[in-house]
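User: I'm writing a tutorial on reading structure tokens. Could you give me a worked example: one chain, its sequence, then its tokens, then a sentence or two explaining what the tokens reveal?
Assistant: Sure. Here is the example chain.
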Amino acid sequence: MPSLNLAIARLINTGNDSFAIWVVNAPYPSGYVLRDCVWPPHLTQAWLEWQQMFAGHSRLDISPGATSQEANPLPLDFVAPTSTQPTSYTARLMQYLGISLWGWVFEGAILNSFERSRGIAMGERTRLRMRLEIRDPDLIALPWEIMQREPGQSAISLSQHILFSRTTSEVEPLPYLRSEQALNILLVLGEDEKHLELKKEAASLEEILSNGSVVGSNYNGYAPCMVNTLLQPTPQELIQQLETKAYNVLFYAGHGLQGPDGGLLFLRPGMTLNGMELAQVLTSTGVKLAVFNACWGAQPAAANHQAVSHSSLAEVLIRQGLPAVLAMRDEIASQESQTFIQAFAAALRKRLPIDEAVAEARQQLLIVYRFNQPAWTLPILYLHPDYEGELIKNFDEGITELPETSIPGIASLVSNACLRSLSAGGKTSLLRPGITRIGRTGDNDIVIPEPSVSKRHAEILCRNSLTGATAVRTYYLQDLSTYGTTWVFRSDGWQQIHRQEVPLQSGMQLKFGSTKSQPWEFIIDNSPG
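And here are its predicted structure tokens:
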């Protein structure tokens, strides 16, 4: 699936309101563009009014830039009503902020890169995976999920053509991820300041998570789901449970508090666990997705009216190598939460990628609680930049792994290929007929035990086709490394590729990791095998 990653950062030396917006990852080589811009006062005013309208109980007392000198009324009249009924102020404010955020981000070269990337996705008959990285902590609190091109069009997180999530690039490599066919959930109910009946709440959540929706339960490929519940565990009990069984989802409901190390989860009176501590056990036990139904899981801590960098629970977990985190931007009502969880669990059990499941559940919140209410804007999804969002393996993936099965007898008609190390005494590794995985750890097909090589560094894809009666096999190199340290030697020297797919020709030289690492030669044996 084509992916477009954008990053936003404040330019410290050119004024407090100066920012850079650039493309970190694009599905085509010339899509990596950058532009400088200034944060406009009307966006600050719209954001302040949004907080007063929708987050009066628990808003961050920070501002993304200088506030406007005069509190002029916002020009909300340009937001056209979608029916003959009068449009409420909340709906017009939400659309105004969404359209203003879109106009600030998607302008000039950034818009051109977005449009072309979306065109590539449409040409491949798939969605564009759009990931946004907010490097300025003051901007994280904004509801970027409501970005909207113009009245009448869907918000970016509700679009049928885009899968929207947030990310960060300063991350630890992904741990080894198990291939699984079932949803294995550890449900943790911690201390709740509202003093809810925990056993009743646990039974309700177990029912929602296990059964999903009526529509989902009739789905032919519906994956099984197992839920184990811990009520107010000690930190040691939680860690022991995670280490004892192979869970792929942690679901936490309870009280949370912001802090510099990912904040605190209140497991039981007097016993807490901070984000850094939780990250260590989640990444070491193979959990792919952590869901937090707790206040402020997606928000940074604040000190002296300034947001603290990389302090939100979601960011801390992603930076430590967790594949996916779903947290709330603000407090969510119990009924809204249950509606979202039910739709989300059903979508996961349909084997949808996590970002697609979030989009489907967000749509359900919109349907039930309406556009002009904040419910659908509250879930915030963070994905690791190297993670494609697969929680449960799709039944059809085996076809992708062995493409020659779709063309009977092709394996005996086409050439074979290998990678040959050019170092003294180096080895030669035959490539698989589907996907050959290259990386530092032992679960790869070609293991390169060098510190500069990522755990899952690259893949070589083999694709088969027939031209008339002639069988044709082509090979492509796909970079998956954390920092884009895959190299191809061309006529003008070594060229770095970053999350790109490039065609391979026999005789091409490759490097994985540092430019000083051992070179490899890609070779095609044209004699039929």
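What the tokens reveal: The chain has a mean pLDDT of 83. The first strand starts at residue 3 and ends at 10.
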